[in-house]
Design brief:
The protein has helices at 3-16, 25-40, 45-57, 61-74, 80-96, 100-113, 118-130, 134-147, 152-164, 168-181, 186-198, 202-214, 220-232, 234-245, 252-264, 268-280, 284-287, 291-301, 304-315, 321-334, 337-350, 355-367, 371-384, 389-402, 406-417, 424-436, 440-453, 458-470, 474-486, 492-497. The chain has 510 residues and is an all-alpha fold. The protein starts with a helix and ends in a 13-residue tail after the last helix.
């Protein structure tokens, strides 16, 4: 495999792990140009639309939302085509923000202006699926099919609806029809995999996504789907890849997928084995792009010396945002806090708004005995994202337990406690904040679903260990941590080296 492909895959994986998009000089020049035009005419709806589109491509959804709302308010009613484009972008932005009800309202505004808009009907169908409105989604996809009887998107949408309604036979028939319409398109296999996943046919879904991966140079969509599926059923993905490895000579991309999925799911021994196989099958020069990933894997396996060796090899290729994050974690794990701070600052020079880098810099400062400096980093993190639970918990601890500012600490804990929490990790953080805010009964109710999940899931058991420590129940914390390890928790960084206040179990490690 060429170095270009290796780097493409590595960058694709990096995008899945949340690395921010950097603004290149050309994009910055375009944004500066838009700013100049809007200084001259703040109501220039075309420029507002273009700038919103640019912010959207940069994943800066708050700025994109602000611009598109103003563009819509400034656009004359007679400009129907422009308004349709604006409502479509507004819906896309709300979708990325997870605000599906607002997205649906934007789509419907667009459909009032253009009732037979194929793209808006497709967007409506998918938005209704997000909202659990399967009947409305089915109507939108059926309307698409009336406009274009050979529409793969419409047929897949109808298959999706049938699967959600439990009509497996009908869903499978739609899949067969859709495959005939566009049999060589990688998206056909991605969408088939999505429906198989809804039907609980995870082995089929994994095979579908692998087929999609083999058909395209745009590896992002199938790779995302495989990793998402692995989080739900790791064994199905791992077994599908093992099967594929025995039926092709082109093993390099498969080892990359296998290692990436294992890494995302916390199976670091599997990730290490896959990445070792990957590096053994590519030239040394091509392996350069994999060293940062190996450094991270070794860190989470608890092998700091090997992690640092790979990081040093990666450093030879030049500065890299994610590498600086990994190096900061390695140095923090070693107790080299000034060095950890140096690498965290290097990451911040590449992306000042990176929450992870700000928290790492704060941790290094705190552990170096500089609580005021740590507080400044956390203030910046919270200013960037007022809902950053980890930063607020850390700042609450720092204010209350280190700096003696109980009022500020209570304010931080209350802010976390008031947030909506959907994932187990967020629920645990909310419950910990409630404990620290003196809301013990609320905390017990909040943590209940995680406690139930802890019987079968390692991550939930680990979170219960954190919660138990926050509740000053060290014996229960020890029991839960042992349960997490029994259930397969492999992350040695979390077990032995993570030092974030309120989110560390180091006290339990004997």
């Amino acid at each position: 495999m060429s170095i270009r492909k290796i780097l493409l895959l590595t960058l694709c994986y990096a995008s899945l792990t949340g690395i921010a998009k950097e603004i290149n000089p050309l994009t910055k020049a375009m944004l500066d140009g838009y700013a100049t035009l809007l200084e001259q005419n703040p109501d220039d709806y075309l420029t507002l639309y273009e700038r919103s589109s640019q912010y959207y491509r940069l994943d800066d959804y708050d700025k994109a939302l602000s611009d598109i709302k103003k563009a819509i308010s400034c656009t004359p009613g007679k400009e129907k085509d422009q308004l349709v484009s604006e409502y479509s972008l507004l819906a896309d932005i709300y979708t990325q923000l997870g605000q599906y009800a607002e997205a649906l309202m934007a789509v419907d505004q667009g459909l009032i202006l253009s009732p037979d808009s194929y793209p808006l009907l497709y967007m409506r169908g998918n938005t209704c699926l997000h909202l659990g409105q399967t009947e409305a989604a089915g109507k939108a996809f059926a309307a698409m099919q009336r406009l274009n009887p050979r529409s793969p998107e419409a047929v897949f949408g109808l298959a999706h609806v049938s699967a959600l309604e439990g009509n497996k036979e009908q869903a499978m028939q739609y899949l067969a029809d859709a495959e005939k319409l566009d049999p060589s398109n990688y998206l056909t296999f991605c969408r088939t995999g999505d429906v198989h996943r809804i039907l609980g046919m995870h082995q089929n879904a994994a095979a579908d996504y692998l087929s999609a991966f083999s058909l395209t140079g745009n590896s992002d969509r199938p790779l995302r789907s495989l990793i998402d599926l692995a989080k739900e059923n790791y064994e199905a993905v791992d077994q599908a890849i093992d099967y594929a490895l025995t039926h092709t000579a082109n093993v390099v991309p498969l080892y990359f997928i296998q290692g990436s999925a294992a890494r995302e799911c916390g199976h670091y021994d599997d990730a290490y084995a896959a990445f070792r196989q990957l590096m053994d099958n590519v030239p040394e020069a091509d392996a350069q792009g994999l060293y940062t990933g190996m450094a991270d894997i070794c860190l989470h396996r608890g092998n700091l010396e090997e992690a640092d060796a790979y990081a040093s090899k990666a450093m030879a290729a030049g500065p890299d945002f994610h590498l600086n994050i990994v190096k900061a974690e390695i140095e923090q794990a070693r107790g080299n806090y000034p060095s950890a701070a140096m690498y965290a600052e290097a990451a911040l020079r590449m992306d000042r708004a990176c929450a992870e880098a700000l928290r790492l810099a704060a941790l290094a400062a705190y552990r170096s005995g500089e609580p005021d400096k740590a507080l400044a980093y956390l203030n910046e993190a919270v200013m960037n994202d007022a809902s950053d639970m980890d930063a607020l918990l850390f700042r609450g601890y720092l204010n209350g337990d280190v700096l003696g500012n109980k009022t500020a600490a209570l304010n931080d804990y209350t802010r976390v406690a008031s947030q909506e929490a959907k994932t187990d990790a967020a629920i645990a953080r909310k419950a910990i904040a409630q404990l620290k805010a003196g809301m013990s009964l609320d905390a017990s109710a909040t943590i209940a679903p995680v406690n139930v999940a802890a019987g079968n899931h390692a991550d939930a058991a680990y979170l219960m260990a954190l919660y138990s420590l926050a509740a000053d129940n060290e014996a229960e914390g020890d029991r839960m941590l042992k349960r997490a390890v029994e259930l397969g928790l492999e992350d040695q960084y979390l077990l032995r080296y993570n030092e974030y206040p309120l989110l560390t179990v180091k006290k339990l490690i004997k």
